[in-house]
Amino acid sequence: MSVLLLRLAGPLQSWGGASRHMTRYTLDMPTKSGVIGLLAAALGRRRGDDLSDLAALRFGVRVDQPGRLLTDYHTVSAASHAPADRARQRMPTASGGSLKRADSTKVTTRYYLADAVFIAGLEAPQATAQLLADALRRPRYPLYLGRRSCPPARPVLLGIQPGASLETALQEAPWQAGPAERARHNTGRQAELATAIEDPAGTDALPDQPLPTPAFNRRFAERSVRHSTIRIDIPGAPAPSITPAGPHDPMSLLET
Q1: Residue 98: which region, alpha, beta or left (left: phi > 0; alpha: psi -120 to 50)?
Q2: Quick check: 5 and 242 in contact, CB under 8 A?
Q3: Cα R_g (the chain), whole angstroms
Q4: What are the residue ranges spanned by the domains of the chain?
Q5: 110-129 average pLDDT score
Q6: Do 118 and 5 contact (CB within 8 A), yes or no?
Q7: Is the CB of residue 120 less than 8 Å from the CB of residue 19?
Q8: How does residue 133 score in pLDDT terms, banded at 50, 70 and 90?
Q9: pLDDT band at 59 (very low <50, low <70, confident <90, very high)
């Protein structure tokens, strides 16, 4: 087995585990369903396509920079759809219909993680890891960190660690924190980083395991997760090598 390593870093991220109605929460680290969606976008899969092969991969996250919680008061209106015709100012629904005009202005509260950095790992056969890595280098659809308003700030693909377990790969991956987070630590010491690794014996359950469902009717099962911390050397000492990710330009397809 090999481990595909992703770097999830951006000004904003939002990983909804239990978003309901007009309040859109975020968990404090990426969800498996969100990362599977990112990989599906890179592969060019459409909404409603079978994701069972991706969902079967063992998943884990390391928190390199926790960021901070940000709350956004957000108003959504359909007035811009037809400014001169009030009767047509109706908000579309995900299923292709539309709401009544009286229901087409919504006030929502949305939560984001600002300036967070995570490493996500997926344990997979080498051929599968390579296929996903190639797709991330030239994604079919734009990639985002939980929501479409949250593009990545750096290349998502960190590399492939061949012949490693998920635990080993997360332990050995170079620290991805930014300058401000690095400044909080003393060079030559170690940083203690939180992890959440998929484990049947884990004591926590997260409802983010994608199930085979039709488009616009997404359902998820619970998966067992083990929370822990690991210590890694702060940069200054040589870091274990990982297969280079190579050039990455997710918008290059727009030029063709």
Answers
A1: beta
A2: yes
A3: 20
A4: 2-71+112-255
A5: 95
A6: no
A7: no
A8: very high
A9: very high
Q: Which residue has the tokens 């292709």?
A: 96
Select from 3.10.420.10, 3.30.980.10, 3.40.50.1980, 3.30.70.2660 the CATH code of 2-71+112-255.
3.30.70.2660
Residue type, 256: T
Q: Write the pLDDT tens digit of every residue in 10-49.
A: 999 999 876 666 778 888 999 999 999 999 999 999 988 8
Round to whole Å and give the CA distance between 53 and 149: 27
Determine contact, residues 194/63, Cβ cutoff 8 Å.
yes
List Cβ neighbours of 249 (8 Å cut-off, separation of 6 or more). Answer: none
CA of 179: how far to CAs of 11, 22, 182, 185, 241, in Å?
Answer: 14, 35, 5, 10, 21
User: Is it the case that residue 240 has pLDDT exceeding 60?
Assistant: no
* Mean pLDDT rounded to a whole number for the chain: 84
Q: How far is CA 187 from the centre of its chain?
A: 29
